[in-house]
């Protein structure tokens, strides 16, 4: 069952793209992304993850994401290198596209005055705190770093970048996503060129993606927002907010979602960088009480209620514009966490944290994928006449089967041998996954050995599956 599994004439690539010049992970156009299998997106979570979480999600069959808004140039390049070299499946890199505020010394002074009692209690000098943004919007400078990697997916929060920047991203062949928290925002995103809309319900943890209004009364729950956006736009819609298990996935799909985005459920995964204090809060009864707050950054974001939110009020008007509120909070956070306290930490969490548990991200991903109908769209049919099948053959065949199932999205792989005749069937969500598997170095070496040692002859067919019938086995007595 080791041979070229793809007709030589078939190619799948984005228009205007030279595959020979690209890194190992080829970008995926939208039509391919939508047929790549279940659209389970891991939400980008700045400060709580890096590429390790994204890769674990990808390798388990989901779409991992890298939050890039807080990464320095060198760190961004390193993380993109790890992602592009670590998986052949689609992955997402996420950026903010806010407009930096003009300096406002009076507002900053009011903010520091508000925080002064906490500084005095901690024995910290508030006058020593430098002002700073902490987060930068997507720009041509950032795009220069990203362009060599041509990410399969680029997503944005707080709208979209300027038209020339957006055109540049689309020129890479990247699928463009952005979050909408209202129908109006979804229509705006569609009109300005997104390939798919993320419908972010108010249950979602972290920053609200709202960008057409500051009115929090416009923000509604995922399962109220989702069907309205599905009815209003002509692009795929991805549900986000409050989805923590397979049942939530099924509910979103029933309301018309093309896929789902999940964040909080991954915050306590083995690969997450979530602090011990944050993990403990997520797995405690405190996680039942979350609130939107502007205290930690200047924009509404959902987190577990803590001392700072209780004593100042979660939406205190003294907090300066995003993202300048962060600078004066940072020393209080650092001091508190040294004492084992999350009183001044942004304990980001969605309203539904019950799926947040300590486990490998791959396990969490596979459980969420149970909410999607498993659909094989292509089958590779391999027939061979054996010449001499030795121990090395058996080990290689097992290795390639495992590679197909765990890294390249193969849904099932069965083989039967009778005498010198062998037939192997492998089932796949799309042709791109088949091609990626075929081009892996281990597979190329196995093909060569098959021709030279193991097979007298073989044939390969790649067929589309147009119908599926299923009769469950009778229950065991």
Automatic annotation (TrEMBL):
Gene3D superfamilies: 3.30.70.100, Aldolase class I. InterPro entries: Aldolase_TIM, Dimeric_a/b-barrel, NMO. The keyword Oxidoreductase applies. Keywords: Detoxification, Flavoprotein, FMN, Monooxygenase, Oxidoreductase. It catalyses: 3 propionate 3-nitronate + 3 O2 + H2O = 3 3-oxopropanoate + 2 nitrate + nitrite + H2O2 + 3 H(+). CDD domains: NPD_like. Coiled coil: none annotated. Its cofactor is FMN. Belongs to the nitronate monooxygenase family. NMO class I subfamily. This is Propionate 3-nitronate monooxygenase.
């Amino acid at each position: 069952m080791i041979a070229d599994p793809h007709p030589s004439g078939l190619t799948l690539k984005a228009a205007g793209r030279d595959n020979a010049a690209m890194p190992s992970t080829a970008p995926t156009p939208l039509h391919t992304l939508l047929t790549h299998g279940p659209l389970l997106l891991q939400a980008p979570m700045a400060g709580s993850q890096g590429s390790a979480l994204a890769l674990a999600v990808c390798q388990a069959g989901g779409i991992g994401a890298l939050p890039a808004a807080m990464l320095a140039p060198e760190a961004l390049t390193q993380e993109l290198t790890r992602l592009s070299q670590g998986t052949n499946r689609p992955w997402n890199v996420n950026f903010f596209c806010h407009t930096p505020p003009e300096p406002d010394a009076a507002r900053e002074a009011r903010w520091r005055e508000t925080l002064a009692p906490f500084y005095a209690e901690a024995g910290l000098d508030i006058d020593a705190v430098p002002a700073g943004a902490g987060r930068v919007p997507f720009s041509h400078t950032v795009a220069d770093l990203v362009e060599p990697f041509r990410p399969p997916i680029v997503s944005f929060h707080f709208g979209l970048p300027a038209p020339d920047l957006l055109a540049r991203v689309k020129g890479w062949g990247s699928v463009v996503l952005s979050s909408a928290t209202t129908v109006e925002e979804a229509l705006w995103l569609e009109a300005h060129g997104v390939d798919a809309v993320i419908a972010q319900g108010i249950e979602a943890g972290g920053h609200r993606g709202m960008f057409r209004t500051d009115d929090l009364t416009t923000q509604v729950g995922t399962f109220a927002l989702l069907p309205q956006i599905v009815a209003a736009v002509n692009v795929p819609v991805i549900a986000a907010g409050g989805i923590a298990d397979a049942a939530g996935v099924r509910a979103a799909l029933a309301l018309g979602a093309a896929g789902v985005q999940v964040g909080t459920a991954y915050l306590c995964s083995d690969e997450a960088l979530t602090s011990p204090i944050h993990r403990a809060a997520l797995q405690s009864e405190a996680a039942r009480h979350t609130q939107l707050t502007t205290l930690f950054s200047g924009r509404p974001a959902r987190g577990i209620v803590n001392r700072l939110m209780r004593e100042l009020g979660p939406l205190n008007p003294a907090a300066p514009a995003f993202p300048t509120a962060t600078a004066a909070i940072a020393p209080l956070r650092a001091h508190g966490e040294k004492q084992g306290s999350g009183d001044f930490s942004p304990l980001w969490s969605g309203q539904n944290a019950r799926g947040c548990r300590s486990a490998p991200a791959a396990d969490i991903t596979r459980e969420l994928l149970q909410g999607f109908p498993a659909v094989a769209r292509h089958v590779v049919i391999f027939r061979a006449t054996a010449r001499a099948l030795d121990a090395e053959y058996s080990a290689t065949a097992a290795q390639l089967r495992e590679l197909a199932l765990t890294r390249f999205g193969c849904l099932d792989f069965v083989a039967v041998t009778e005498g010198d005749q062998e037939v192997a069937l492998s089932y796949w969500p799309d042709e791109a996954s088949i091609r990626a598997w075929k081009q892996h170095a281990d597979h190329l070496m196995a093909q060569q050995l098959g021709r030279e040692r193991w097979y007298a002859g073989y044939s390969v067919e790649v067929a589309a599956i147009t119908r599926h019938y299923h009769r469950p086995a009778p229950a065991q007595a």
